[in-house]
Amino acid sequence: MQALDDRSREVLKSLIQLHIATGEPVGSESVARLMSRQVSPATIRNIMAELERLGYLDHPHTSAGRMPTDEGYRFYVDSLMSHRPLPAPDAAAIESELRPADSPTHVMQSASTLLSRLSRNVGFVLAPHVAQGTLRHIDLVRLPYPRILAVVVSGAGLVAHRVIELEEELTQDELQTCANYLNTNFAGVSLLAIRARLVDLMQEEKALYDSLLQRAFAVGEQAFAVDGDGSDVYLEGASTILEHPEFEDISQMREIFRTFEAKSRLVKILNACLGDGVRITIGHENPDPGLRTLAVVSAAYPVEGEAAWGVGVMGSTRMEYDRMIALVDHVARAVSAALKDVRS
User: Fold this and answer.
1) pLDDT of 257-310, one tens digit each?
2) Residue 101 is part of a domain; what is its CATH number?
3) pLDDT at 344
4) Backbone angles phi, psi at 3, to 5 degrees
5) Residue 260, in any domain of the structure
6) Taken in order 147, 149, 155, 157, is the CA torsion positive or negative?
7) CA-based max dimension of the chain
8) Nearest CA to 13 among 29, 35, 28?
9) Residue 57 forms beta bridges with which residues?
10) Are 181 and 175 in contact (CB under 8 A)?
11) In this structure, are 180 and 263 located in the same domain?
């Protein structure tokens, strides 16, 4: 994109701020009233025409005003927008509702609800698959042969229940011995690393005669596997999309809600939107056609010894980006602290 002079930058910034506030195409006279410098509406019309030619603005056929394109919003977010702190009442609400927390599930549910309520958009929390974390504990419960229930708790406190099948019929005492072996030798180790270590051990000749190791290998191969993506996503406030006038197209709405309902597809999309710190994905920058009318403001945050988690909001590209960035960043930090409390 071509560089803009100071006057063109101020026109674009003023127009985008007005459009975010009203949802309507913006005319030159409205821009002139908002600008800090004295510029005639005629001059502003010429600048707006040039901004349209450069791809930053669009000109709806039914209106004399103009609206930002995805490229216009991108330039605004990267070069024009001022950053502001989160309002104190919102920060207080986040601290009080996320802490103390009794489980990772409570954290995810509370965070997605908070994000939706405070942003008036769709809020989401994306947690990694249990097998991408470390082992805190495993329990094995005997079911009718050949099935066994494996209850795996990750270092972050996430719980996965998986029914596996073993060729050998084992008593509950034998299963307990197997679970004790895994808990004693592999607590704090990545679940994927445990599987690899068990494979290495089974390849050693002496292991062929170790029945306990054979059972641990048979359990670990299935209990610690990742089937597909397997991540958990908590989504709250999908109906807020209906409140925006730009989503009056029924077919467009159907596609958005189909995407929300397809968990594996949604997880893939949201993972692609995560990056270092707060990341903004606007309109056609979204990797999936189903969300290319939306903007996503997201943040990945570390959990010690675990794969990164993610939080964010989704909504119209006509969102208050400065406020959404402050909100998502604050919630991400609060979630990270809450999860640390749960683990300690």
Assistant:
1) 888 877 777 888 887 877 778 999 999 998 888 888 899 999 987 766 566 678
2) 3.30.450.40
3) 58
4) -65, 150
5) yes
6) positive
7) 89
8) 35
9) 68
10) no
11) no
What is the tally of structural domains in the chain?
A: 3
Query: Residues 204, 240: one domain?
Result: no
Residue spans of the chain under pLDDT 50 = none
Phi, psi of 4 (to 5 degrees): -115, 145
How far is Cα 108 from Cα 235, in angstroms, rounded to an integer?
9
Query: In the chain, which ranges are E strands?
Result: 57-58, 67-68, 122-127, 135-142, 147-154, 159-165, 232-236, 278-282, 294-301, 309-316
Residues 109 and 247 in one domain: yes
- For residues 136 and 83, give the distance between their C-alpha atoms in angstroms, rounded to a whole number: 40
Same domain, 337 and 240: yes
pTM of the model: 0.78
Token pair listed for 261: 């309902």
Same domain, 125 and 140: no
Contacts of 204 (CB under 8 A, 6+ apart): none
